[in-house]
Design a protein that fits this description.
The complex is a heterodimer.
Chain A: E1 4-7, E2 10-13, E3 19-25, E4 32-38, E5 44-51, E6 57-58, E7 67-73, E8 76-81, E9 90-98, E10 101-104, E11 108-112
Parallel strand pairs in A: 2-11
Antiparallel strand pairs in A: 1-3, 3-8, 4-5, 4-9, 5-6, 7-8, 9-10, 9-11
Chain B: E1 4-5, E2 11-14, E3 19-25, E4 32-38, E5 45-50, E6 54-58, E7 61-66, E8 71-76, E9 85-92, E10 100-102, E11 106-111
Parallel strand pairs in B: 2-11
Antiparallel strand pairs in B: 1-3, 3-8, 4-5, 4-9, 6-7, 7-8, 9-10, 9-11
Classes of the chains: A mainly beta, B mainly beta.
Chain lengths: ~110, ~110
Protein backbone atom coordinates (compact mmCIF):
# COMPACT_ATOMS: atom_id res chain seq x y z
CA UNK A 1 0.00 0.00 0.00
CA UNK A 2 0.85 3.66 -0.18
CA UNK A 3 3.22 5.16 2.37
CA UNK A 4 2.84 8.39 4.28
CA UNK A 5 5.71 9.62 6.41
CA UNK A 6 5.87 12.22 9.14
CA UNK A 7 8.80 14.08 10.56
CA UNK A 8 9.71 14.33 13.32
CA UNK A 9 8.27 11.28 15.05
CA UNK A 10 8.51 13.02 18.38
CA UNK A 11 9.48 16.47 19.55
CA UNK A 12 9.82 18.27 22.85
CA UNK A 13 9.67 22.04 22.84
CA UNK A 14 9.41 24.85 25.33
CA UNK A 15 6.24 26.80 25.89
CA UNK A 16 5.99 29.77 23.55
CA UNK A 17 8.07 28.31 20.74
CA UNK A 18 6.85 27.03 17.36
CA UNK A 19 7.11 23.53 15.99
CA UNK A 20 6.80 22.38 12.38
CA UNK A 21 5.60 18.89 11.49
CA UNK A 22 6.00 17.53 7.97
CA UNK A 23 3.73 15.03 6.25
CA UNK A 24 4.87 13.42 3.00
CA UNK A 25 3.25 11.00 0.61
CA UNK A 26 6.21 8.92 -0.52
CA UNK A 27 4.96 7.03 -3.54
CA UNK A 28 1.87 8.87 -4.66
CA UNK A 29 0.58 12.37 -5.13
CA UNK A 30 -1.97 13.70 -2.71
CA UNK A 31 -4.01 16.78 -3.55
CA UNK A 32 -5.69 16.48 -0.17
CA UNK A 33 -4.20 15.64 3.18
CA UNK A 34 -5.83 15.64 6.58
CA UNK A 35 -4.43 16.62 9.97
CA UNK A 36 -5.72 14.97 13.13
CA UNK A 37 -4.95 15.31 16.81
CA UNK A 38 -5.36 12.57 19.38
CA UNK A 39 -5.17 13.07 23.12
CA UNK A 40 -4.49 10.05 25.37
CA UNK A 41 -7.39 7.62 25.52
CA UNK A 42 -9.42 9.83 23.20
CA UNK A 43 -10.45 9.61 19.62
CA UNK A 44 -8.83 11.20 16.61
CA UNK A 45 -10.15 14.68 16.04
CA UNK A 46 -9.95 16.16 12.58
CA UNK A 47 -8.21 19.51 12.77
CA UNK A 48 -8.10 20.57 9.16
CA UNK A 49 -8.16 19.51 5.54
CA UNK A 50 -5.07 20.54 3.62
CA UNK A 51 -5.49 21.22 -0.09
CA UNK A 52 -2.54 21.56 -2.43
CA UNK A 53 -2.21 25.08 -3.74
CA UNK A 54 -5.01 26.56 -1.66
CA UNK A 55 -5.89 27.46 1.90
CA UNK A 56 -6.60 24.74 4.40
CA UNK A 57 -10.10 24.18 5.69
CA UNK A 58 -10.19 24.18 9.48
CA UNK A 59 -12.70 22.40 11.68
CA UNK A 60 -14.79 24.34 14.12
CA UNK A 61 -12.85 25.25 17.22
CA UNK A 62 -9.40 24.91 15.63
CA UNK A 63 -7.49 28.19 15.53
CA UNK A 64 -6.12 28.71 12.05
CA UNK A 65 -3.62 31.31 13.26
CA UNK A 66 -2.21 28.91 15.80
CA UNK A 67 -2.10 25.81 13.61
CA UNK A 68 -0.63 26.94 10.31
CA UNK A 69 -0.99 24.51 7.45
CA UNK A 70 0.87 24.74 4.17
CA UNK A 71 0.38 22.27 1.31
CA UNK A 72 2.95 23.56 -1.13
CA UNK A 73 3.32 20.46 -3.27
CA UNK A 74 1.45 17.28 -4.12
CA UNK A 75 3.61 15.28 -1.74
CA UNK A 76 4.15 17.60 1.21
CA UNK A 77 1.94 19.26 3.80
CA UNK A 78 3.27 20.96 6.91
CA UNK A 79 1.59 21.80 10.20
CA UNK A 80 3.19 24.49 12.32
CA UNK A 81 2.07 24.81 15.92
CA UNK A 82 2.79 28.42 16.82
CA UNK A 83 3.36 29.68 20.34
CA UNK A 84 2.93 26.18 21.68
CA UNK A 85 1.53 25.64 25.16
CA UNK A 86 1.43 22.52 27.34
CA UNK A 87 -2.20 21.92 26.38
CA UNK A 88 -1.04 21.49 22.78
CA UNK A 89 0.85 18.36 23.81
CA UNK A 90 -0.72 15.59 21.80
CA UNK A 91 -0.27 13.01 19.07
CA UNK A 92 -0.55 14.68 15.67
CA UNK A 93 -1.36 12.44 12.74
CA UNK A 94 -1.67 13.24 9.06
CA UNK A 95 -3.31 11.19 6.36
CA UNK A 96 -3.60 11.18 2.60
CA UNK A 97 -5.91 9.53 0.14
CA UNK A 98 -4.65 7.20 -2.59
CA UNK A 99 -7.43 5.76 -4.68
CA UNK A 100 -10.09 4.35 -2.38
CA UNK A 101 -8.00 4.20 0.74
CA UNK A 102 -6.84 6.61 3.39
CA UNK A 103 -3.29 6.13 4.61
CA UNK A 104 -2.11 7.54 7.90
CA UNK A 105 1.34 8.76 8.72
CA UNK A 106 3.03 7.25 11.77
CA UNK A 107 2.22 10.29 13.87
CA UNK A 108 4.22 12.93 15.70
CA UNK A 109 4.16 13.07 19.47
CA UNK A 110 4.49 16.65 20.64
CA UNK A 111 5.35 17.47 24.23
CA UNK A 112 5.37 21.12 25.27
CA UNK A 113 7.15 21.83 28.55
CA UNK B 1 -23.10 17.48 16.56
CA UNK B 2 -22.29 14.29 14.76
CA UNK B 3 -21.38 11.51 17.20
CA UNK B 4 -19.96 8.05 16.92
CA UNK B 5 -20.33 5.80 19.95
CA UNK B 6 -18.34 2.72 20.85
CA UNK B 7 -17.98 0.69 24.01
CA UNK B 8 -14.45 1.36 25.26
CA UNK B 9 -13.99 -2.21 26.49
CA UNK B 10 -11.77 -4.00 26.99
CA UNK B 11 -13.43 -6.80 25.11
CA UNK B 12 -11.68 -10.06 25.92
CA UNK B 13 -12.06 -13.11 23.71
CA UNK B 14 -10.13 -16.38 23.63
CA UNK B 15 -7.86 -17.14 20.70
CA UNK B 16 -9.82 -18.65 17.83
CA UNK B 17 -13.14 -17.12 18.86
CA UNK B 18 -15.20 -14.51 17.04
CA UNK B 19 -14.81 -10.94 18.28
CA UNK B 20 -17.78 -8.67 17.72
CA UNK B 21 -17.27 -4.92 17.82
CA UNK B 22 -20.16 -2.50 17.67
CA UNK B 23 -20.64 1.13 16.77
CA UNK B 24 -23.62 3.48 16.60
CA UNK B 25 -23.76 6.89 14.96
CA UNK B 26 -26.05 9.83 15.37
CA UNK B 27 -26.26 11.32 11.86
CA UNK B 28 -28.83 9.45 9.81
CA UNK B 29 -27.45 10.97 6.61
CA UNK B 30 -24.01 9.40 7.02
CA UNK B 31 -22.68 7.87 3.84
CA UNK B 32 -19.37 6.14 4.52
CA UNK B 33 -18.31 3.88 7.36
CA UNK B 34 -14.83 2.73 8.24
CA UNK B 35 -13.10 0.42 10.68
CA UNK B 36 -9.52 1.11 11.71
CA UNK B 37 -7.13 -0.79 13.93
CA UNK B 38 -4.77 1.18 16.14
CA UNK B 39 -1.97 -0.35 18.16
CA UNK B 40 -0.81 1.52 21.23
CA UNK B 41 1.33 4.51 20.31
CA UNK B 42 0.81 3.99 16.60
CA UNK B 43 -1.39 5.61 13.99
CA UNK B 44 -4.53 3.89 12.71
CA UNK B 45 -4.59 1.52 9.77
CA UNK B 46 -7.65 0.92 7.67
CA UNK B 47 -9.23 -2.51 7.98
CA UNK B 48 -12.18 -1.97 5.71
CA UNK B 49 -14.89 0.42 4.61
CA UNK B 50 -18.55 -0.14 3.86
CA UNK B 51 -21.06 2.10 2.12
CA UNK B 52 -24.16 -0.06 1.63
CA UNK B 53 -26.47 -1.90 3.97
CA UNK B 54 -25.57 -5.51 4.58
CA UNK B 55 -22.37 -7.41 5.06
CA UNK B 56 -18.96 -6.97 3.52
CA UNK B 57 -16.31 -9.62 4.02
CA UNK B 58 -12.54 -9.38 3.69
CA UNK B 59 -10.59 -12.36 4.93
CA UNK B 60 -11.29 -12.85 8.63
CA UNK B 61 -13.11 -9.53 8.88
CA UNK B 62 -16.78 -8.84 8.19
CA UNK B 63 -18.32 -5.40 8.43
CA UNK B 64 -22.07 -5.14 8.87
CA UNK B 65 -24.06 -1.98 8.23
CA UNK B 66 -27.66 -1.24 9.17
CA UNK B 67 -28.50 2.33 8.25
CA UNK B 68 -32.06 2.10 9.57
CA UNK B 69 -30.71 1.30 13.02
CA UNK B 70 -27.67 3.57 12.56
CA UNK B 71 -25.45 0.70 13.51
CA UNK B 72 -22.23 -0.71 12.11
CA UNK B 73 -20.29 -3.67 13.42
CA UNK B 74 -17.07 -5.54 12.79
CA UNK B 75 -16.69 -9.27 13.24
CA UNK B 76 -13.26 -10.81 13.51
CA UNK B 77 -13.24 -14.56 12.99
CA UNK B 78 -10.53 -16.86 14.34
CA UNK B 79 -9.19 -14.08 16.55
CA UNK B 80 -5.44 -14.06 17.05
CA UNK B 81 -3.34 -12.46 19.81
CA UNK B 82 -1.96 -10.13 17.12
CA UNK B 83 -5.50 -8.75 16.71
CA UNK B 84 -5.23 -7.24 20.18
CA UNK B 85 -5.53 -3.51 19.56
CA UNK B 86 -8.01 -0.66 19.72
CA UNK B 87 -10.58 -0.68 16.94
CA UNK B 88 -11.88 2.67 15.78
CA UNK B 89 -15.17 3.13 14.03
CA UNK B 90 -15.34 6.17 11.76
CA UNK B 91 -18.23 7.74 9.90
CA UNK B 92 -18.43 10.33 7.14
CA UNK B 93 -21.54 12.33 6.36
CA UNK B 94 -20.28 13.62 3.06
CA UNK B 95 -18.98 10.36 1.71
CA UNK B 96 -15.43 9.28 1.07
CA UNK B 97 -12.91 10.42 3.62
CA UNK B 98 -14.04 14.01 3.97
CA UNK B 99 -15.21 15.16 7.39
CA UNK B 100 -14.71 11.80 9.05
CA UNK B 101 -15.80 11.52 12.69
CA UNK B 102 -14.08 8.87 14.77
CA UNK B 103 -15.39 6.95 17.75
CA UNK B 104 -13.23 6.61 20.84
CA UNK B 105 -12.47 2.99 20.03
CA UNK B 106 -12.96 -0.43 21.58
CA UNK B 107 -9.95 -2.15 23.06
CA UNK B 108 -9.82 -5.80 22.08
CA UNK B 109 -7.78 -8.36 23.97
CA UNK B 110 -7.34 -11.81 22.47
CA UNK B 111 -6.29 -14.25 25.13
CA UNK B 112 -3.94 -17.06 23.97
Amino acid sequence: GAVVSQHPSWVICKSGTSVKIECRSLDFQATTMFWYRQFPKQSLMLMATSNEGSKATYEQGVEKDKFLINHASLTLSTLTVTSAHPEDSSFYICSAIDGDEQYFGPGTRLTVT
Amino acid sequence: QKEVEQNSGPLSVPEGAIASLNCTYSDRGSQSFFWYRQYSGKSPELIMFIYSNGDKEDGRFTAQLNKASQYVSLLIRDSQPSDSATYLCAVSFSGGYQKVTFGTGTKLQVIP
